[in-house]
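Thread: quick sanity check before group meeting

JM: Hey all, I'm pulling together slides for Thursday and realized we never actually wrote out the predicted structure for the chain we discussed last week. Dropping the sequence here so it's in one place. If anyone has concerns about the input, flag it before I start.
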Amino acid sequence: MTAANIPTIQLPGGAMPLLGLGTWQSEGDDAERAVITALELGYTHIDTATGYGNQAQVGRALAAVDIDRDHVFVTTKLPPDHAGRERQTLTESLAELGTDHLDLWLIHWPPNKQATPETWQQFIAARDEGLVRSIGVSNYSIAQIDELIAATGEAPAVNQIPWSPTDWDADLVAAHHERGVAIEGYSPFKRTDMSAPVLTEIAEAHGVSPQQVVLRWHIDHGIVVIPKSVHRERIESNLDVLGFQLSADELARIDALGA
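JM (edit): ok, ran it. Output follows.
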């Protein structure tokens, strides 16, 4: 099996590929097939969550493909209503995924819309025991991240948030960077008007699709992106963004969609 040469960013626990397969709303056999397809095509990053109800299918796919576990970056997430049951949930996730460690474990949403440092302490403990290589959050505000840092002295490695050209916010990017928090974006396509002239013009110039331009925009900004699909053609085209790069001018023009 040949892994695609996907660019990475460095987290405290190791390298994280900037492009991965998202599995939200992927269910049953479709989820298993999608992950198998992605791994066979060369993806090295799979994102799931306890709340998606498909960890067992992801685990079966990981077992079905002849690839070294250490060559796949696996993320899952703790549901907010599992605060207080962190260790039990992690144990169940590891069992369903068929692995002895996670590459990244995220708090899926702030429990009761609160930062909840107690849960973050449990994440730090799991990381320190070697059950998780890196830990982070999802859908947290900068103020909530600051609360975790103030309480524990530890910043999340990642904040997974909705992200697309329409969401571009240089101040928000800078605030994460200042705290050493990587941004991981989800829903890159549905939050963007794919018919926007800037996207169609840049796509035409590179001989690619507007969707591929959006994915490359994330990668060139150093922002992780996890497009989801259960269709082989889409999974393949989402990976086919490694053969071109956007210029500084093209990035700036796309950024302006968020102005």
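AS: nice. The first helix runs from residue 28 to 41. The chain is about 40% helix and 15% strand.
JM: adding both to the slides.
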